[in-house]
Amino acid sequence: MKRTAMIGHLTPAHAGQTVTLQGWVNRRRDLGGLIFLELRDRSGLVQVQVEPDSAAFADADRLRAEYVAEIEGTYQARPESQRKGGLADFEVIATRVKVLNTAKTTPFELEKGDSVAEDIRLKFRYLDLRRPEMQRNLVLRSKAVAAVTEYLDREGFVQVETPMLTKSTPEGARDFLVPSRQNPGEFYALPQSPQLFKQMLMIAGYDRYYQLARCFRDEDLRADRQPDFTQLDMEMSFVELDDVLSTQEGLMAHVFRETMGVDLPLPFPRMAYMDAMNLYGSDKPDLRFDLKFTEVTDLFQGGEFKAFASAQAVKVIAAPELTRKQIDELERIAKQNGAGGLAWLKRDGDGFTGGISKFVTAQAAELIARTGVAQGGTLLFTAGEWKKAVGALGAVRLALRDLFDLAAGGPQFHVSWVTEFPQLEFDDESGTWTYMHHPFTAPHPDDLDLFGTDRQGEIRAQAYDLVLNGFEVGGGSIRIHDPAVQAKMFQAIGFSAEQARDKFGFFMDALEYGTPPHGGIAWGFDRLIMVMSGATSIREVIAFPKNNRGVDLMALAPSPVEPGQLADVGLSVALDNS
Prior knowledge:
Blueprint: E1 18-31, E2 34-41, E3 44-50, H1 57-62, E4 68-77, E5 90-101, H2 118-123, H3 125-128, H4 132-154, E6 158-159, E7 177-179, E8 187-189, H5 195-203, E9 208-216, E10 228-237, H6 241-260, E11 270-272, H7 273-280, E12 293-295, H8 297-300, H9 306-309, E13 313-319, H10 324-336, E14 343-348, E15 351-353, H11 364-371, E16 378-384, H12 386-404, E17 415-419, E18 424-427, E19 432-435, E20 463-468, E21 471-478, H13 483-492, H14 497-511, E22 518-524, H15 525-533, H16 563-568
Parallel strand pairs: 3-5, 6-9, 11-17
Antiparallel strand pairs: 1-2, 1-4, 2-3, 4-5, 7-8, 9-10, 10-22, 12-13, 13-16, 14-15, 14-16, 17-20, 18-19, 20-21, 21-22
Helix pairs in contact: 4-6, 4-15, 7-12, 10-12, 13-14
């Protein structure tokens, strides 16, 4: 029979009606001859009562957890003593039960999925995906896709699919390579992003483009990374930075409103990269709580405390009162993030005790005035090379957030922009300059003359990152549209004219044929849904993810292939066992 409705779509208006429901048995209980079932589908769960004199009793008696069943019966209110309010106050009195399929005993209890080892959940992902928590995440994702499509279509964006097999280009991570059978010894690369193709769509006159693009990066994994992932990719012509940012703010606000009923305050605040690093030690600061660094380099310059006296930067953060055990753990985190150590002081009246207190007698009053540290509170310091000092203290700041639940008092979601990133950064390993975002990012027009000088590290990029609760969920820039500027950029990162043409010749040619000013952005869509759902890993919002070793435990990929398949593409495997 055709089902009357999905379980979650039943309403009090159905009371007294005969309904037909189909789904999985969530639980079965026998109570004094009565059988109680919980029937579950994607939309919800309902209690089913099967009485001993019912024609349905024998079939209901066969049911076990995760059997697939069809239930026909009367939808009615539960006894008044059992009511708690809402749709749980209704149940089905079964008149017919049909077993649609049996099920083996599951390798883990679905209701206890959160406490099950992740590798077990991933091995039996088709069972894990039955859990309401997982289904809520994927439904949220689906609704977000619908909201994105609705908004961008209304704004005149054109959806275009770009190639999955393309040319290997240097974009910051290793490519996944695909051998070409028809071109022996040559390889495609799976795209790390559609960057060049979307820029060429602007050259082609499409003006506004978007795509939910599948991308691939062969890099080390962590909780917010996968080797294959989804980007929401967008590009716009005849725009300046403010045009791109305002469009993105409207889109993000629309997605939150349509999927979660959350109104994000507009416009999103903006912060320059240097301010973000100096105040929070991160280019993606979590601004749900306000715990800033204080600059105190000048107080120790040339002083008796040698660890601080010649440091490029000395930064301090005012924390609540901490135990020595807590300080030791925070120091471990600071060292893990590049600091030589974590100096500390505890405020005692108008001075300090503990830690480095014997070195700060002269600076005590000024430290209290600058930091506002509370009585009994703790000052935590990092010192040394600027980037390491701020980065390590940034990690300590996040550890303090988690230790004292500092974000709980702020907004549930805080979205901001970080702008004015450096165009270039120096790679100490190679001894050369490299790009911070990618080599197609436009420099600030006021800084163009710094290319090729000893001040090119000061060039500001017209780049911007979208930050949500301390996660970078989007990144983009105004692009280079002038071939002469693109040539300067390639030269700055050490590409010879021949190397640039070998890697990007087709794109450099395209720039010569009337390229409009343009800019865009890509959202890390998996990461966005992770934060929106409250999940702690993007694996919780992807239907069939890889584990933290890049392995699909369900399909057992990657795996060896037949020798004949390798021979078809002219390859053999030689493993280095040294």
